[in-house]
Design a protein that fits this description.
The chain has three domains: about 325 residues, alpha-galactosidase from lactobacil brevis (Beta-galactosidase, Chain A, domain 5); about 300 residues, Alpha-Beta Barrel (TIM Barrel), CATH 3.20.20; about 110 residues, Golgi alpha-mannosidase II (Immunoglobulin-like, Sandwich), CATH 2.60.40. The chain is about 20% helix and about 30% strand. The strands form seven sheets. Strands 6, 7, 8, 9, 11, 12, 14, 15, 19 and 20 form a ten-stranded antiparallel beta sheet that branches. An eight-stranded parallel barrel has the order 21-22-23-26-27-28-29-30, surrounded by four helices. The mean pLDDT is about 95. It binds alpha-D-galactopyranose.
Length: about 750
């Protein structure tokens, strides 16, 4: 993945086999030229600068009045220089000025990818996996030096960008905006795709044409949020799963974010991604450096599916870290929906015994195991085991679970605190709370000030003690409220603008320390379901609870939307009881499992209440998952039929192994329709010249060959997999509503 630097023309070309990213330095400023499909390397691409000046625009300088920032695509737009759009860098200097002038100083190309201090980021394991260009700009008057980092990966159509800002002057300054990356596209014929939602309906795919002005997504909640994931894509109209150009932008960050698309009136589009400037104001003393999070930009000429698979591969292999990155994930049972807060040790052991008997590998004890926690009004913050509920404490309970042949996992919610806890009484100053203002509750709880290193130390200490007290194999790290009253009582008034970001740095620090201390433990992140399902979290916890909504029908949309960026191996997905606890729908056990298989599989129900028939079915599901989890966890996912299309009655997706030898295809139909015609779905990712045996897998673990003969990859991808319901036309003995069908394809020689 070379980074070509043409010294004579100051043109930088970052490329691999999949894409090119080109910019040039003119008059001392770096201007973007091209981002897209790979083009041959050339000395110069100056004509791509475009119209550098238009009537009434402000010139670059007196020496260069006929170029204007406004009509060039700046790699680093900064405040005060006539760019006239939202900048990537804005600083208030000691003089009160926000006028900056950052010019090119030097560049270096380093093999591999440097780590970003204190922040999660993509990485490489060997230096030949990526090259990084470090472009340094400086403004000697303002006393600012900026390094722009660009990493291009071998074999991935992705580029990672971030920025370091140093105060090189003698006076303090304040950063008001420090975005991770700015991307200029010389077109506006694109549609904005975002993942919008709310609690229990996270990450719906929303798509709308761009228009002049600013559009985009953001979070001002202190976490990446259920509402807007830190991701946007810009797709050509008509771009489908399989075809068309698309640019995806994903921010590796878990706090307040802003992903804006600014379309000017000359059909030029600027994407800015980074920490939300709202509430951000970062004092930088002389000699200090600020490192932004990174943004990953992916280009595809082959549709949304290809874009997603680039994100999946990168995030699964080079963002997730640790022992569990590549290990098969355990099939778990979580007691939350089985018992909520109403349990004791015997009840838990009963549920675990029933689950272990079905082949389930890990028992997770959710909320409610600590003192003063019989409902969600109290207890958070002290992290003392409730030995009335659990007389053998965690160590004894874990031992009993282990004796059943299962691993033991535990729920924690480190960032939160309830009133009337010991920690609150002893350290009221550790709670985020503005002087004299009311404290605003959410789920009866408040937020600890993780921008304060003492709080991080306290939490590390308490949780380290809890986790090391028992044989714990898994931790579910929850975070059940958004931040408000964001004021750090232990921080100087002039540093309060740091608190939102410093809070999330504290969260990362705690994650870093606990995952380093317990490298054998599988961490799963969670935030009231999927309120912090973001790339930052994936760096510490390779899987995340996708949503509190476990209804099979709702999950089709939630898992489809999530899969735009995040791999199957990251999506916690469990079979729960019916009527479902979120929407009260009754779906067949088969459909619930057929949906949950496409994630990190588990159960969220009381296994002691299953009927004999259900136990047999669950046993078969668990066996199926064990047999197929490698294919599901490491395979490539192809989305085939969108639940967001039309009336959303159908959905289909599949996973294929790397060599296209084996595939699993799932088709779901929410409601039965009367008198329907032939149905099929075109598959993807197969070898067109290979032949596949196609079997339908049934709930009782039996299977039947579909065509009575092998089918070619070409047939399955071009004509499609036949899904015609035997009962179509006349309902004779059809499944009715909530149909799910699972097919296995195996290449035959
Ligand atoms: C959140 C999580 C749930 C469960 C509860 C416990 O809502 O998403 O899975 O852990 O908290 O309070």
């Amino acid at each position: 993945m070379p980074i070509s630097v043409h010294a004579e023309t100051s043109t930088f070309h970052l490329y691999n086999d999949e894409m090119s990213y080109i910019f040039t330095v003119r008059e001392g400023y770096p201007f973007h030229l091209y981002f897209g499909a790979r083009v041959p390397d050339e000395q110069e691409f100056d004509y791509l600068l475009g119209e550098a000046w238009m009537p009434s625009s402000v010139g670059l300088s007196a020496a260069c009045p006929h170029m204007s920032f406004e009509h060039l695509r700046c790699e680093l737009p900064f405040s005060g220089a006539g760019d006239m759009r939202l900048p990537a860098l804005e600083a208030v200097l000691a003089t009160g000025s926000r006028v900056l002038n950052l010019t090119y100083r030097e560049h270096t190309v380093v093999p591999g990818k440097p780590a970003l201090s204190g922040l999660p980021a993509t990485y490489v394991e060997r230096d030949d996996e990526a090259d990084t260009l470090v472009l340094t700009l400086a403004d000697d008057v303002a006393g600012i030096a900026v390094s722009l980092l660009y990493t291009v990966f071998a074999g991935r159509a992705a580029i990672a960008r971030s920025m370091q800002v140093r105060n090189t002057g003698a006076a303090p300054l304040v950063l008001e905006r420090a975005m991770s990356g700015c991307f200029g596209l010389e077109r506006d014929d694109l549609e904005l795709i975002e993942l919008a939602g709310s609690w229990a309906r996270e990450r719906s795919v929303v798509r709308a044409p761009l228009h002049p002005g600013i559009q985009g997504v953001y979070s001002l909640r202190g976490h990446s949020s259920h509402q807007f994931n830190p991701f946007i894509a810009l797709a050509e109209p008509g771009c489908t799963e399989q075809a068309g150009e698309v640019y995806g932008f994903s921010l590796v960050y878990s706090g307040n974010h802003a992903m804006t698309v600014d379309v000017d009136t000359y059909h030029s589009t600027r994407v800015l991604a980074g920490i939300s400037p709202e509430g951000f104001s970062w004092p930088l003393a002389p000699g200090e450096t600020f490192q932004t999070p990174e943004v990953v930009a992916v280009y595809s000429a082959h549709g949304l599916g290809d874009m997603s698979r680039t994100f999946h591969g990168l995030y699964r292999e080079r963002l997730a870290r640790g022992a569990w990155r590549d290990r098969p994930r355990p099939i778990l049972i979580n007691n939350w929906e089985a018992t909520y807060f109403d349990f004791n040790e015997e009840k838990l052991v009963e549920v675990a015994r029933a689950a272990g008997d079905l082949g389930i590998e890990l028992f997770v004890l959710d909320d409610g195991w600590f003192t003063n926690r019989d409902d969600d009004h109290g207890g958070l913050g002290d992290w003392e085991v409730n030995t009335v509920k659990l007389p053998s404490s965690l160590a004894g309970l874990a031992r009993r679970i282990n004796e059943l042949g299962m691993e033991f996992g535990l729920w924690i919610e480190p960032e939160m605190v309830n009133p009337e806890t010991r920690v609150w009484r002893e350290h009221p100053e550790w709670v985020l709370h503005a002087p004299g203002q009311p404290l605003r509750p959410c789920r009866h709880q408040y937020v600890l000030d993780l921008s304060n290193p003492d709080v991080v130390e306290y939490l590390y200490d308490r949780l380290e003690r809890v986790i090391s007290s028992a044989n714990i194999a898994y931790i579910k790290w929850d975070m059940n409220r958004s931040l408000a009253d964001v004021y750090s009582q232990t921080t100087k008034p002039e540093d309060q603008g740091r608190v939102w970001h410093a809070f999330i740095l504290g969260v990362y620090e705690l994650y870093q320390r606990l995952t380093a201390r317990f490298p054998h433990i599988l961490f799963e992140s969670c935030a009231g379901g999927g309120g912090r399902f973001d790339p930052g979290m994936l760096a510490y916890a390779p899987q995340a609870w996708t949503s509190d909504d476990t209804d099979a029908v709702e999950r089709l949309k939630i898992q489809w939307g999530t899969s735009l960026v995040y791999p199957v191996s990251s999506m916690g997905s469990h079979v729960s009881a019916v009527p479902n606890h979120q929407v009260f729908r009754i779906t067949p056990l088969k459909m619930r499992a057929d949906v949950a298989y496409f994630g990190t599989f588990g159960y969220e129900l009381d296994a002691t209440k299953l009927t004999e028939e259900e136990r047999a079915a669950v046993r078969a599901q668990v066996a199926f998952m064990k047999q197929h989890r490698a294919l599901i966890q490491y395979g490539e996912q192809y989305r085939l039929k969108s639940p967001f299309a039309g009336r959303g009655n159908e959905c289909a997706w599949m996973v294929v192994d790397e060599e296209s030898r084996e595939a699993l295809v799932a088709y779901y139909r929410v409601l039965q329709e009367a008198n329907v015609g032939r149905r099929s779905v075109r598959l993807a990712g197969l070898d067109p010249s290979a032949w596949y045996e196609v079997c339908e897998l049934r709930a009782d673990a039996s299977s039947s060959r579909l065509y009575g003969r092998p089918a070619s990859g070409a047939e399955l991808m071009r004509i499609g997999l036949d899904l015609t319901d035997e009962s179509a036309g006349q309902i004779v003995s059809g499944q009715g509503d909530f149909l799910s069908r699972l097919f296995k394809l195996v290449r035959v020689s």
